[in-house]
């Protein structure tokens, strides 16, 4: 979940008033926000809705809260639409066909008329980062560059360039590097270079005089791309793979900057071929479709018999303009949002705008029968028997190391489910048996008074070709006992008692080639032809692997096979 | 000082009754006078000293003479001198070899005994070279030895109890080492002399007053019951606060008990339990929940992938086609979809279940309407393991299907959970965000101990989730974070403790 920081000065200024933290916490749910901390003048805010990138800035949150308080929304009158295009006054961004194979889209807009202050610049850079990393999948689908507009000679060109001959001085360095060198030498190149480095050509942004703006999505130039406090004329460029997401991100940034006091200047973007929105798009561009839902759908989902006017008023508090007509609520999606996939998304906004506190909890009316799963029923029976036999129930983690589950146990690795991206080798195998878990207890419990009698009813999983997943998960009973005198006869007696009370007639057959047990002192438990478990004296080599010096017996039974 | 006579062992009682202030109390004395064994005596001393009833006054070295096997034989049959003297007295003069064979003695023994007897003028050798008696009876010296032997039969002899002559005689017949051929063995023993303290005297008074003799009955035995001998005596009252011994019972795991309790609660509220495999695929783990395949929570750094087999064989139809289409353009769900090309290979990729909601999704195609389901599912997350994150952990999740469920019934359900399961005093709802529910609600509760915290997340499944899986009624989905309550319940503050392998820690864990 995105977390942002903002100075109180900037935030309260955008809000139009200063309110204390308690009031903030009270109203924050409207933006699905949580106050994470407030130290000196720095507010830390966590945003829970990963589909609302417009809220990941102080301006965006302030916009949402102000609407909720009933303030008229500012007029964002710089959006071109399919019907109406603003004059870009010569500011143009031309996309070359060569960019298509590496990163097809680039769009941009400009801003002027406001000297950027230190906390505004920080806020802008933060927005840029949050949008690129959370919404733009770590710059894979969206990368944003901010440039000094007055140094640019329009039109700006975006193209695929030869990575070995194209060179410029990147931000943070003092010499020219080729695009390919940037990928291997510049810290940002190492981080983001892989997004494009498999391509023949790399994305490259320069002005009409050939001055470099940037190597998107990696790094700006040290000249045009080095925005500083006090800069008054800015150009913003967004490159990426999805036109919808790029346009939305540009709209969010434009609205935020407008809230900060900038005048937003349109840029005409010319593509080499037709896009969904034409060959030329003047950005910022309003592309969202209206969304509607029926009032009966609102009633059904929210359970509240509100009127159409109530719903419209609720949406207004969410900053959404809507009208109610013939059982339907028609809403205009705000320029900075594009999260209405389904009418239920509009219903949720009605819910929040209406106020969650205005819905009275009701009990579901339907009668249903509660029931434990058969595995749980049998598990409880088995647990009670084991407790009656003097055993302590244990509960273990299901992930462990190869050393524990395979090497120490002399158990075949071919049966085990390995993780391909383990975080550490301590957690790289799903346990194929309860017995290693029980032996781990032995290895850490030499100080605990003997006898040790422990068991677990839990899950194990191992490879099984017959299954769709190639694996099977089983409900399993494992028990272990250790003491200075402990052997086959003890474990066999326990098994006998257990199966007697479970009402299962079993036979024993010889267990051979199982390195976990002492040969000749271990057995398979058979229900007819079905092998349902094993038990025996743990092999001293295994005990040695676990650092145990006490004779130990163990047993494991597949409970799923007992369930019929 | 409060004296509880019930805390006195019979050995203590009898000793206390026997001794008086100012008297020296020694093991030797108690053994003699009360017939204790030395071990019993030492036990009584140790207990009474610990209670402050006896105090050590001094330590004395004692010399004891213990009869050897050899000495015991002589005591029973008589010494060679006695026997030789008695023989010739009765049978007349005999040659020494004749005496030896008649009495089954060694010739050398007979020789040395004859030497002693003649030196003491009790016998002499006559002209026929036969031994004959010249005294009426044996002289005192020999009797002394015989007497000592007889006394030795009754028990060890204390040097301090011997007179000067006896000591002299003992000097001849006792040895410290290699005493096998001597009648007595010398034993040196340090003996502690105790005295009764003032408190001891009071304890004695208390014992006398309570009329306890130390002869009361101890453990009831089958023999006492069979013979009826218990009727003859009274039972000694036991010290009620005597230290108890540690027992190690068979026990359920307290965390397991808590989970069982939660399951029972949910059953009582009409929920049916579901369960599933630990290994899942991307389809059920994310796609079926309408999480786009590029969603950040599906990243390599959030989910564990299975190394082999990387993919499952197939995804069940028609769910695969319907879900894929829903992602792409919304299918018939009323949604516009995520507008991307659904990856049919990625969807088969296998992972360890990362969220319990998977089981809810899997339940949907086979669910009854109306229906309520829950599961306590082990889930796996790519997280650094610490006090608040486990490599694997339980999630408690469920769904409610019904034509008439809605936001208000969801709130009602959450309220019921908050009150019934979490014991909440107050409940607060806030809008939440989950990729698979819309609207989404978080429930925060005020717990009597933990204060305000987030109990769980919930919502109404998106139509993209339900319709694609063949369900046309609204479905409430909820998850409860009960780990925190479990920790509180068990008096722990580290999640790792819930799954500790440490036997002693689990054995002694109480739970509530």
UniProtKB/TrEMBL annotation, chain A:
Cofactor(s) annotated in UniProt: Mg(2+)
Keyword Signal assigned: no
Protein's UniProt keywords contain Electron transport: no
GO biological process terms held by the UniProt record: phenylalanyl-tRNA aminoacylation
InterPro entries: aa-tRNA-synth_II/BPL/LPL, B3/B4_tRNA-bd, DNA-bd_dom_put_sf, Phe-tRNA-ligase_IIc_bsu, Phe-tRNA-synth_IIc_bsu_arc_euk, Phe-tRNA_synthase-like_B3/B4, Phe_tRNA_ligase_beta2_arc, PheRS_beta_core
Location relative to the cell: Cytoplasm
Highest taxon of source: Bacteria
Listed GO CC annotations: phenylalanine-tRNA ligase complex
TM segment ranges: none
Main location: cytoplasm
Catalytic activity: tRNA(Phe) + L-phenylalanine + ATP = L-phenylalanyl-tRNA(Phe) + AMP + diphosphate + H(+)
Gene3D superfamilies in the record: 3.30.56.10, Bira Bifunctional Protein, Domain 2 (3.30.930.10), Phenylalanyl-trna Synthetase, Chain B, domain 3 (3.50.40.10)
Enzyme class: ligase
PROSITE patterns assigned: B5 (PS51483)
Domain B5: 286-361
EC number assigned by the record: 6.1.1.20
Keywords, in A-Z order: Aminoacyl-tRNA synthetase, ATP-binding, Cytoplasm, Ligase, Magnesium, Metal-binding, Nucleotide-binding, Protein biosynthesis
Molecular functions (GO terms): ATP binding; magnesium ion binding; phenylalanine-tRNA ligase activity; RNA binding
Residues annotated for Mg(2+) binding in this entry: 339, 345, 348-349
Similarity section: Belongs to the phenylalanyl-tRNA synthetase beta subunit family. Type 2 subfamily.
Matches recorded under NCBIfam families: pheT_arch (TIGR00471)
Assembly: Tetramer of two alpha and two beta subunits.
Protein name per its UniProtKB record: Phenylalanine--tRNA ligase beta subunit
The organism of origin for this protein: Sphaerochaeta halotolerans
Name of the coding gene: pheT
From TrEMBL, chain B:
Enzyme kind, highest EC tier: ligase
UniProt subcellular location: Cytoplasm
Main location, first listed in the record: cytoplasm
One GO-annotated biological process of the protein: phenylalanyl-tRNA aminoacylation
Residue stretches making up the Aminoacyl-transfer RNA synthetases class-II family profile domain: 314-501
Pfam family, one: tRNA-synt_2d
Superkingdom classification of source: Bacteria
This enzyme's EC code(s): 6.1.1.20
CDD domains given in the database record: PheRS_alpha_core
GO molecular function, one term: metal ion binding
Keywords for the protein's UniProt record, in alphabetical order: Aminoacyl-tRNA synthetase, ATP-binding, Cytoplasm, Ligase, Magnesium, Metal-binding, Nucleotide-binding, Protein biosynthesis
Family: Belongs to the class-II aminoacyl-tRNA synthetase family. Phe-tRNA synthetase alpha subunit type 2 subfamily.
GO CC field: cytoplasm
Aminoacyl-tRNA synthetase among keywords: yes
Protein name per the record: phenylalanine--tRNA ligase
UniProt xrefs under PROSITE patterns: AA_TRNA_LIGASE_II (PS50862)
InterPro entries (alphabetical): aa-tRNA-synth_II, aa-tRNA-synth_II/BPL/LPL, Phe-tRNA-synth_IIc_asu, Phenylalanyl-tRNA_Synthase, WH-like_DNA-bd_sf, WH_DNA-bd_sf
Species in which this protein is naturally found: Sphaerochaeta halotolerans
